[in-house]
Amino acid sequence: MINIEDEYKELMSEILYKGSEKKDRTGTGTKSVFGRTIRHNMDLGFPMLTSKKISFKAVRTELLWILQGRTDLKYLEDNGVKYWRPDYERSGRTDETLGPVYGKQWRDFNGVDQLYKLIDAIRYDSNSRRMMVSAWNVSELSDMVLPPCHYGFQVYVNNGVMDLMWQQRSADVFLGLPYDIAMYGLLLEMLAKGSNLIPGQLIGQLGDCHLYNNHLDQAKEYLSRSRRVMPSLKLHDGLSISYDSRVCIPDAKDIELIKYNPLPAIKAPLSVGN
């Protein structure tokens, strides 16, 4: 079985020791590789890194924010998620939103509630090869604080098991990618739970995979550590559609991470915009 932390470490090591030097829009500079796939068998546990601590509250908050179709900073910051503020301030916006980003597109892509259609298809047409959601709305990219880094996902159902594959154009491997992994792991769990399916494989297809030059020492520290047993997830309700055709989204209090015992966090500076 494939453990995503092993895959993550392998990717980080490849970038650190074999990656190409590249300039980037933040001015920090990176080492990068292109076009990599990472996988995780959900039987092995919930995909939160254990060789360094990451915040499950931040993972849960951002996913619920997206699922609700929100784009405001207030919800995020009221729940302790403040890393979007620098990109917002850089953008010149004054409305305290991030523009028509992830949640807007998942729930209202040119008038289409993609999340509703996805859940409906899982329930009534699970052999479909069209069970996809996209955040890459070309007509609205210029209005976004930052174009989507993870820009789409697809689910696959077979013999009572659901797999999920997400696509990502840009992966900040040290800081951002661990949160993306956990967020899509949580989404897979929610979709499967709401449809009475078993979570199977989580798959990430990554474009530009990079380490910022001011994260290289932290990457070496991370690679020197051994991983621990992955936690599990306690989820009372999944994503479903109600009798009156509303998407039902679990409350934060009903989403609980169990037995998460990671090694300490490794601090690293945030590079604004990628």
> Ends: how far apart?
32 Å
Q: Could you tell me the number of beta strands?
A: 10
Number of domains: 1
Q: Give the oligomeric state.
A: single chain
Rg, Cα atoms, Å = 18 Å
Largest sheet: 6 strands, mixed
Instruction: Figure out the total of helices.
Output: 8
pLDDT < 50 stretches: none
The pLDDT mean sits at 96
Helix content: 25-40%
- Beta-strand percentage range: 15-25%
Order of helices and strands: HEEHHHHHEEEHEHEEEE
Strand order of the largest sheet: 1-2-6-5-4-3
Taken from the alpha-carbon principal axes, the silhouette is: globular
Write down the CATH topology.
Thymidylate Synthase, Chain A
Secondary-structure class? alpha+beta
**CATH structural class:** Alpha Beta
**CATH homology-level superfamily:** Thymidylate synthase/dCMP hydroxymethylase domain
CATH architecture: 2-Layer Sandwich
Describe this structure in words.
The protein is α+β, with helices and mostly antiparallel strands and 274 residues long. It has a single domain, classed as 2-Layer Sandwich (Thymidylate Synthase, Chain A), CATH 3.30.572.10. The chain contains 8 helices and 10 strands. The protein has helices spanning 4-18, 56-67, 73-78, 85-91, 102-107, 114-124, 177-194, 216-223; strands at residues 20-22, 30-41, 132-134, 150-158, 161-172, 198-212, 232-235, 240-241, 247-248, 255-258. It has a 6-stranded mixed beta sheet with strand order 1-2-6-5-4-3. The protein is globular. The two termini are 32 Å apart.
